[in-house]
Amino acid sequence: MKEIIGDIDILDNTQESCEVVNITKDENNVGQKKLYIESYGCQMNFSDSEIVSSILKKEGYTTTSSIEEADVTFLNTCSIREKAETTVRNRLSEINQYKKKNPELVIGVLGCMAERLKSKLLEEEKIVDLVVGPDAYRELPNMLDEVSTGQKAVNTFLSREETYDDITPVRLNSNGVTAFISIMRGCDNMCSFCVVPFTRGRERSRDPFSVVKEAQDLFDKGYREVTLLGQNVDSYKWSAEQNNKARLEKIDSADIVNFANLLEMVAKVSPELRVRFATSHPKDITDDVLYTMKKYDNLCKYIHFPAQSGNSRILERMNRTYDRDWYIGKIDRIKEILGEDCAISSDMISGFCGETEEEHKDTLSLMEYVKYDYSYMFFYSERPGTLAEKKYEDDIPMDIKKRRLTEVINLQRELSIERNKRTIGNTYKVLIEGFSKRSDKQLQGRTTCNRVAVFDAGNHKKGEYVNVRVNEVTTGTLLASVVEN
Ligand code: SAM
Ligand code: SF4
Predict the structure, then answer these.
(1) Closest ligand to residue 192's CA
(2) How far apart are the CA of 485 and the centre of ligand 1, in A?
(3) What is the DSSP string of 26-93?
(4) pTM for the predicted model, two decimal places
């Protein structure tokens, strides 16, 4: 979900974004064993690496940003597209040189690729000592003990309960202003293209009181924005008796906390704490969620609402459980309740099995109808074991997939600039996240709609809210000036 939330510039959010890597920061406490983690793919993985760091910190490890200094190196991996897995395999070959220099170096593969390939990964990648799936991180200390006796260790057990709710994540790569809070794990949907249900298991929601506690704790430490994370946050459902979604649906309890309730609970931590969420399957968003967003100013007016395709036949093949008209109805509802200014983004897949030229054009026309603020755009990559791999032929040639993807990207660029132009001359409250990428004389922050604004720093600093007026726009940025009160 780096693709989903992290970077506003749509040019960075195409097929290549799986190469985005997060690395542990330098703590380097003298005398402690050093842990180095590279995290690939989605924000959920980055968030999981913070949990892993927390678990190993309790075992006396300190984090490092240098693989050369590490005693333990983990790659937290992504399987969503073939390219993501190729990237990790190439990286493992590069890491071989460090293992040759330091044969004691422990190398572990974590996350979705570990879950998908299990012990096969140990056979295929000889330098790997340890393979651990996303629900087994509590076992890491025992697994490291096993590895220290010269054995290899594998644990890819998928849990129906694990939410790591009692673990306070060690914040890695943090700007001290914005943080992610994982609120659920797994996915019970079966989109035919997607490997996630196989690599992340059944859906389960985290205790809402532990979510609120984490948000309060972050606020007390100076953070001013949290993003509630999950594959499917709108289907969040929890009760004290049961946190497994499938079982929860069968019981009748007055104490069920749904996503709208959770949003409200987190919004109430402080009006000065902004709240975002990602990502959602469109079928699960309710009017209650939209009205709750409307009620609280600090619930950011931005909804990631992944369509995947604008054609009903393709949506059926994708097993998305909605069609074009239903999706358009939901978009209209969002605009009716939250207004035309609420930002909406999407994920789009070009060249899914059997997609005709006309069906591809339906995706373009849907984009024009909605006028997405941003999109995360991919060409279809067949994944082993998915429903689509079993049922349909991956029959769109790569050059056509790429041409269609380019058309989708070009259109999104036009729409983004069109949407950004609507902001010229208006004033927005922005949360300052730090210096702009280009100059330390300028700051950057985000509007409630997740647009990045860049403006002269003056005496302002990170973590403050400031009002800015927009002067000019690019595809991904608002060029603005501070409006002093
Ligand atoms: N849960 C979210 C939803 O249902 O919309 C999506 C989460 S998924 C991890 C992120 C995005 O990756 C998807 O929305 C989809 O666009 C893309 N994706 C997933 N599988 C893919 C595949 N096999 N080929 C290309 N893109 C894929
Ligand atoms: Fe994958 Fe669909 Fe679940 Fe999203 S909702 S994670 S696309 S199976």
Answers:
(1) 2
(2) 43
(3) ----TTSEEEEEEEESSHHHHHHHHHHHHHHHTTTEEE-S-GGG-SEEEEEE--SSHHHHHHHHHHHH
(4) 0.93
